[in-house]
């Protein structure tokens, strides 16, 4: 059943009214939320109904790619409007491996708080200082049990995050505000893998197990870059799932959908709180994610190293006063939430955008006008998760093709995203695509030059024992990089 929120009609107020007061902003971020489970992007599982309702009266960007398919680098980049190589937050490790965002770098929070906004953040941080300027309240974990799927602190903390955001929005300040409700789920899926290591018998679940995606199987393990062939050796969750049966993967998808439905209920509570007061009619809502999830595509669980769309292509939704609803998703633009969120929100709030920010304001598109400035391509970066293994890579997504490059083995991928949206046919070695490959190599070189990316100088650190078995996750044997490093430390 479609939810109708109070003040929904009033949210589409006239431009004259909008000019009289600054808009509020509510940013809802869900960790691990891939487009592949969001109804507004054509999915039919019914996992994200409250978010779909917001999308039904706003603008949906289809080609939205994160700057890194990993939590901390992505978040540090998002709130600062800079790419991971610029923030130097390249992994999930803490200091001194990663350094905090310098105080002199403008962040989303600092720009808004310095321009009269009440800037508040509830929920997950993992930001290395990029949330500077926001007043943060640490959520209190509220344990509970679930009869079908394992739940952990991710889900417990989301209860506290929801309660804090609801309390704030139910009694908003008299001044304009920018509020972030930063949820952990569906990140609890990582705990699901840990609780179900190896081939296993799952708890009975209600309903029918979801089908595997069309791109579940990898057609040619030898035709993808070495770091991707051996993610099972690099990432603990992939090691744990490497010998799963097809039914195990179907349970994984069911669990992911379950955790998504859990957070969707909390999003619904937050939205109802927003629209319970007059402030709701003057609030622009943004829905996005720090990265996605493999969702069993390419036999992948969670996320690591690869740049497949399931991990990098995230929801990016706007709705509210001054946002002109578009019936169809915006699929003719390449967008990069990592860079574009900050200038877009500043533009909508009438806040000057610092000259050093490389992102593009999407305000013209949101207002139904022609977008004069666009990205010719967007980029995602990979370095390492926790330095157990370091295999730097870059992704360049152009209007039609996606190109990836890894320093290890000089590995490359090229996918025709129009003919092959599942990214199953790597064209990098196909002689018919030499021209396209050359063009996308040039795009990467252009990015490296103009963004002062130190990519070509980075070092690969992959223990040979993590490359011994035949390529492919089902062939995994021996210790993973994490276990090897732990034994070295001992």
Automatic annotation (TrEMBL):
<dbReference type="GO" id="GO:0047753">
    <property type="term" value="F:choline-sulfatase activity"/>
</dbReference>
<protein>
    <submittedName>
        <fullName>Arylsulfatase A and related enzymes</fullName>
        <ecNumber>3.1.6.6</ecNumber>
    </submittedName>
</protein>
<dbReference type="InterPro" id="IPR051849">
    <property type="entry name" value="GAG-degrading_sulfatase"/>
</dbReference>
<dbReference type="Pfam" id="PF00884">
    <property type="entry name" value="Sulfatase"/>
</dbReference>
<dbReference type="InterPro" id="IPR000917">
    <property type="entry name" value="Sulfatase_N"/>
</dbReference>
<dbReference type="InterPro" id="IPR017850">
    <property type="entry name" value="Alkaline_phosphatase_core_sf"/>
</dbReference>
<feature type="compositionally biased region" description="Basic and acidic residues">
    <location>
        <begin position="479"/>
        <end position="490"/>
    </location>
</feature>
<feature type="domain" description="Sulfatase N-terminal">
    <location>
        <begin position="23"/>
        <end position="351"/>
    </location>
</feature>
<dbReference type="GO" id="GO:0015024">
    <property type="term" value="F:glucuronate-2-sulfatase activity"/>
</dbReference>
<feature type="modified residue" description="3-oxoalanine (Ser)">
    <location>
        <position position="71"/>
    </location>
</feature>
<keyword id="KW-0378">Hydrolase</keyword>
<feature type="region of interest" description="Disordered">
    <location>
        <begin position="468"/>
        <end position="490"/>
    </location>
</feature>
<dbReference type="GO" id="GO:0004065">
    <property type="term" value="F:arylsulfatase activity"/>
</dbReference>
